[in-house]
Amino acid sequence: MLEAWEILILPLKFDRMKAPLWLASHLPHKGGDPQNGIPCIHNTLKISDTWSFLGFGGVVFSLSPLVGEMAAARGGMSLSFLRKDWCLVPARLYCRALITGSSIGLMSQKKVLVVGGAGYIGSHNCLLLAERGYQPIVFDNLSNGHAEFVKWGPLEQGDIRDRARLNEVFEKHKPDAVLHFAALIEVGESVKNPVAFYDNNVIGALTLLSAALDAGVKAFVFSSTCATYGLPQQVPMDETHPQAPINPYGRTKFIIEQALKDYGTYKGLRSVMLRYFNAAGADFEGRIGEWHTPETHAIPLAIEAALGRRQGFKVFGDDYDTRDGTCVRDYIHVLDLADAHVRAVDYLLAGGETVELNLGTGTGTTVKELLATISDVSGKPFPVDYVGRRDGDSTTLVANNDKAKAVLGWEPQYTLHDIIRSAWNWHSKANFHLN
Ligand SMILES: NC(=O)c1ccc[n+]([C@@H]2O[C@H](COP(=O)([O-])OP(=O)(O)OC[C@H]3O[C@@H](n4cnc5c(N)ncnc54)[C@H](O)[C@@H]3O)[C@@H](O)[C@H]2O)c1
Predict the structure, then answer these.
(1) At what angle do helices 47-54 and 334-349 cross, to 10 degrees?
(2) Which CATH superfamily is domain 111-429 in?
(3) Which of 138, 245, 404, 435 would be 357's cystine partner, CB 3.0–4.6 Å?
(4) pTM beyond 0.85, yes or no
């Protein structure tokens, strides 16, 4: 990933949060002039990416071989064109120091409590947090999560409704920020058993919030959902769309959003509420992926059909007012979601205010298009059964993601093809069967 001549330039006395902006305003952006000792900012890394990647105020520069030789000749630790109050550190050394947890005397890692981090989206967040220099600590009761998904930090087993256990964990780890993924998530189940949903998703989240407040946490990122909007009044939906959820699942999330706004205004607990559209895809190395029991999401169900583990795939309705009659959804890669979460942590730790943001690609895909992509990527056609419409399904759900782009500097990186490729890789390797 990093080239031989890449180095980090750090101001010796930097404010951890302001360093990237400071550097951006004090250094030449692109191009540079290596002949005269002016470095080039690496073409493929934006300052904000690098900032997140390293989790502190460093910027990765590419030096021309000429300047690189100068750096090597000087032991890689100083260059004449640098101002006296900057220091220069070989990137590989610094990254190794971060990975091994050793310190070269510049800073310590920030800790993030990842609540529900043994689940699908939470575990992908741990992966990216660790890559970008944060230390994830997973808190999960393993009701729907998997201990084998906890690979990038310690697991603290516990339930968010257990205040004493939460206190212990906050006291032990003293996290700087909390990401809250833990919830019951299945819409159909919420209609059958709303009590369990209010208990887990509302009482649990409020208990977690109280514990976080008492522990002095000031940054909280919440997994919300487009289900808080209810039936769309216009598409794509932006954050000003009225919130009128049509099922208990959506209402539990809406209640916590309202609580978070009050906690921000009156208690100083700043939060980012991320309203996901359809989370999909998996780690490209196949270490973790989507594994819900029961599974209700379209992509894993269709892939299991293509793998011959299910008899076929049911499409609910092909008489909608869309380009091919099937419903339109906005599928967003789980690693794009994770990228937005890490940026949300950066944003809050830098003093960002409470905000709600849609996370979607802004592009709609019909069910037929989705199935065609799965057949294409897998090379395996599978039986598809067209049945009647299902209650509560909206015709089209697509995000307007302009606000997330503006606030977090975030941009989804992955296509539908990437989503299916990574999901196919995970499901065809994974040794579990969906029920
Ligand atoms: N999957 C999606 O497409 C999607 C879309 C919108 C919003 N969301 C939200 O994202 C979050 C994560 O979703 P996911 O798909 O990763 O679900 P998941 O079920 O895979 O993960 C949830 C995790 O929370 C844990 N958990 C649940 N209740 C708990 C409790 N009381 N105490 C401690 N741990 C508990 C589970 O064991 C699991 O590991 C949820 O809040 C969900 O509402 C998901």
Answers:
(1) 90
(2) NAD(P)-binding Rossmann-like Domain (3.40.50.720)
(3) 404
(4) no
